[in-house]
Every structure is written in structure tokens, then in C-alpha cells.
């Protein structure tokens, strides 16, 4: 050890004993402090800077990628949502055996998915890097805060991925108000961090008028101008909201405004105008974002998460469609089109309107743009590996949700990046006020 010569010289010279004791105690204390630093408890391979060949358990220390983002004003110089998928031999960071939060229909390895190559990728933005999610850093930033996921089952998919990634640090306790599985609440007691899920696939008020419906997936009365009170009355206390929706608007629906039928989507009822899918979605999303802007006591940040496209090939979801690819697309191999493109454009347009209006009221809206990255991952869905063979399930080949572990884990990389930028904005604003 390099310290041995120092100790030998000190003992040989027999200098002042009190100085020796003080030096010894100081070195012992300095040696013990790192053992209690959370990043030393965190496996090095989970915080490695994958753009470098060196590995360090303190890769988020004084020369971190985050610090470079701050210094280079990365928000302005690099769009982290545009890039390619590159190899990541260190993934995944949990398994279906180590995380209890995985729903059965996303537990691809349990149900026999034979390939694992789809797990070995990470997102590489064009012109910069996106650090792998650091659960200790995330929880430390979320200390004494709260976050709510609002929307459909893909949003729940994202939240479960986050819980699995955080399981390397701590599992939350269930503090839900009741047994309704559509509305759950958890708490990370060490960090006093609350995580909640609000099931609202249309975001606005909806009533199921026919459980079977024209396509055997139900018929829904959707009140496009009425925010869903199941979540709008509950969110003022949260620091962060993550909104998602779109997929359910492909279902057969009757659209209402001011409690009057204005049209429908594939309802098959006489004397009712058939409107486009996107008509209903645009109205509902506008209603949703306006509702958040109208909440006087809500001071948090709203993330609008854009659509993650499905990847049915060879037919529609109920007509033999499947998704059996085993690797990602390159960005020049596919394009966003059809209803996914319409939904995406609507999300971006309504986000811009809400953000502009929100700025006048001190509200903060951010776009969590997952669309490009997930468009390139047709290999990440459960397909037929979300159930046992010959099981009687509605979505036999699931090309909508995402395997856990899987590409959706990258969403936490994006989320943490945006939270860091949010922290920088808060610092900048506080400096401007001084």
C-alpha cells in the first residue's frame, strides 16, 4: 500500500505522539466515510458511463455527465429524444425474478421468450449522451416529494418499470386508500417519496355503455369537455405528474359535449355522425391540460408523455397481427405514420398551447417525447409471451405494452435527465430573483 512508507517514516522518527494520534484518527474517519456514501453501495456496473471504457462506482461524482449537461447547456444544444439504439452489454438492471412489480402480461421471460438480445440496448442521442438511470440519484432528488402517473396501462407499464429500477435501492410500502387496483399509492419510507397511479385511459370522464360493443371491446360514452374527477380532484398535492393517453381512443366511443351527443367513433348507431379518432382525442387532451392550468393550488411540473407506437405486423391486433422482431430499427428504416402520427402531432400541439398558457399562471409543462425512441423498438413487446400458450386472453399477441425488463426501462433515463434540467431551471430562477 502507498500509505506504508508514510507510516514507517512517522514511527521511525518518533515525532510528537499527539500529532500521530490526530493524523491516524483523521485517516480512519476519511476511510470510513465513503463506505456510507450511497454510490458505494450501488453496483458499479449500474452507474458506468457507457461512452467510456472506464468504470467507476463514483461516475456521478465531480466530473459527471450531469455536470457536463449543466455546463454545456445541453437542453439547447442537444435533443436527447433524437438518436439511435446502441449496444449495452451491462443491461438489464433487474430481472423478472428480482422485481415483484411486473404484471403477468409483461413478464416475457416467465412465459418463455427465448431471445434476450432485446434487453442489450441503450438509447444514444445524436450529439450527446444519456446516462443510465441511477436509482440512488433519483430517490435523493425525490426526497420529500411525490409523483403521479395518470392515464392508461402503458403509463402503468412505465411506473412498474420505475419501481423495478428503484428496487435496487428500496421497495415501497403500499399506502393505498382502498383495494381498488386502478388507484394505487406507494411510499419509499427512507426518502419520504410517494408514488401514485391513477387509472384514467381517456383522461376525461367516461362511462361504459355496452361491455361488448360493436367490436367486442366495449362501447364508451366519452365526455370530451369534462375532466375526470377521479384524478383532477387528487393531484394538487403532487410535485410531478406524468400524463399519458391515446390508445383507448381507437375503441368504439360516443362523444359528448355539454352532455349532448355530438358524434361517435365506429359506434354503428343510426343518426350519429361518425367522427375521426383524433377529433375526440384532441378535444379530450385540451380539456385535460386546461383543467391542470385551472388548478390554483397545483405548483408542480406536468410531463406530457407522447405516444409509444404499437408494432402489429401481418394484421390488426384482433386479426392475427403479431410482433416477432428481435432487434431495433435504425432511424432510417421506419417512419411514424397513420393514427400514431396524428396522435403525436396532437400531443405536441396541445402541449405547446398548454405550456404557453401555463407560463402566464406559473404552471410548468414539459414534453416527455418517447415516440421516436419507441418507434424503433418493435422487438420490445410481449407479443405471445405475455401468457401461457392457448390461454384465453383478449390481446393474444400484445404489441402495445412492453416487456419488463425491456426498452421501456429507458424511459427512466429520460425522466431523470429531465428532472435534472428541472433542477437547473429552479436554480436559474432563484438566481434571477436575487
Automatic annotation (TrEMBL):
Pfam families: PC-Esterase (PF13839), PMR5N (PF14416). The keyword Transmembrane helix applies. Residues 77-129 form the Trichome birefringence-like N-terminal domain. The chain crosses the membrane at residues 20-39. It is a single-pass membrane protein. InterPro entries: TBL, TBL_C, TBL_N. Keywords: Membrane, Signal-anchor, Transmembrane, Transmembrane helix. The keyword rRNA processing does not apply. It is found in: Membrane. GO terms for cellular component: membrane. Coiled coil: none annotated. Residues 130-418 form the Trichome birefringence-like C-terminal domain. Belongs to the PC-esterase family. TBL subfamily. This is Trichome birefringence-like N-terminal domain-containing protein. The lineage of its organism: Eukaryota, Viridiplantae, Streptophyta, Embryophyta, Tracheophyta.
Amino acid at each position: 500500500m502507498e500509505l506504508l512508507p508514510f507510516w514507517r517514516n512517522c514511527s521511525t522518527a518518533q515525532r510528537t505522539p499527539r500529532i500521530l494520534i490526530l493524523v491516524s484518527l483523521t485517516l480512519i474517519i476519511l476511510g470510513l466515510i465513503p463506505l456510507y456514501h450511497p454510490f458505494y453501495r450501488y453496483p458499479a456496473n449500474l452507474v458506468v458511463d457507457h461512452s467510456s471504457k472506464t468504470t467507476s462506482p463514483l461516475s456521478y461524482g465531480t466530473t459527471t455527465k450531469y455536470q457536463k449537461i449543466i455546463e454545456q447547456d445541453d437542453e439547447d444544444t442537444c435533443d436527447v429524444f433524437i438518436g439511435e439504439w446502441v449496444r449495452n452489454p451491462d443491461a438489464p438492471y433487474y430481472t423478472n425474478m428480482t422485481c415483484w412489480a411486473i404484471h403477468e402480461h409483461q413478464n416475457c421471460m416467465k412465459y418463455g421468450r427465448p431471445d434476450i438480445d432485446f434487453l442489450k440496448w441503450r438509447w444514444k442521442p445524436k450529439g450527446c449522451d444519456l446516462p443510465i438511470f441511477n436509482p440512488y440519484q433519483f430517490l435523493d432528488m425525490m426526497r420529500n416529494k411525490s409523483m403521479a402517473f395518470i392515464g392508461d396501462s402503458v403509463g402503468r407499464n412505465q411506473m412498474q418499470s420505475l419501481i423495478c429500477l428503484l428496487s435496487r435501492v428500496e421497495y415501497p410500502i403500499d399506502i393505498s386508500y382502498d383495494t381498488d387496483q386502478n388507484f394505487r399509492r406507494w411510499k419509499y419510507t427512507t426518502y419520504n417519496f410517494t408514488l401514485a397511479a391513477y387509472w384514467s385511459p381517456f383522461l376525461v370522464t367516461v362511462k361504459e355503455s355496452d361491455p361488448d360493443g360493436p367490436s367486442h371491446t366495449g362501447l364508451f360514452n366519452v365526455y370530451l369537455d369534462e375532466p375526470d374527477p377521479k384524478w383532477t380532484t387528487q393531484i394538487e398535492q403532487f410535485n410531478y405528474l406524468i400524463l399519458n393517453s391515446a390508445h383507448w381512443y381507437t375503441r368504439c366511443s360516443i362523444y359528448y359535449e355539454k352532455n349532448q351527443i355530438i358524434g361517435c367513433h365506429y359506434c354503428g348507431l343510426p343518426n350519429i355522425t361518425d367522427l375521426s379518432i383524433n377529433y375526440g382525442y384532441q378535444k379530450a387532451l385540451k380539456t385535460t391540460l386546461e383543467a391542470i392550468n385551472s388548478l390554483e393550488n397545483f405548483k408542480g411540473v406536468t410531463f406530457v408523455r407522447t405516444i409509444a407506437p404499437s408494432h402489429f405486423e401481418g394484421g390488426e391486433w384482433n386479426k392475427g397481427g403479431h410482433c416477432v422482431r428481435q432487434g431495433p430499427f435504425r432511424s432510417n428504416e421506419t417512419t411514424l405514420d397513420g393514427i400514431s402520427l396524428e396522435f403525436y402531432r396532437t400531443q405536441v400541439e396541445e402541449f405547446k398551447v398548454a405550456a404557453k398558457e401555463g407560463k402566464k399562471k406559473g404552471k410548468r409543462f414539459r414534453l416527455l417525447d418517447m415516440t421516436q425512441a419507441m418507434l424503433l423498438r418493435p422487438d420490445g413487446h410481449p407479443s405471445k409471451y405475455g401468457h401461457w400458450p392457448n390461454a384465453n386472453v383478449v390481446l393474444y399477441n400484445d404489441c402495445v405494452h412492453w416487456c419488463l425488463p425491456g426498452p421501456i426501462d429507458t424511459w427512466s433515463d429520460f425522466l431523470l435527465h429531465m428532472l435534472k434540467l428541472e433542477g437547473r431551471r429552479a436554480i436559474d430562477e432563484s438566481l434571477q430573483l436575487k
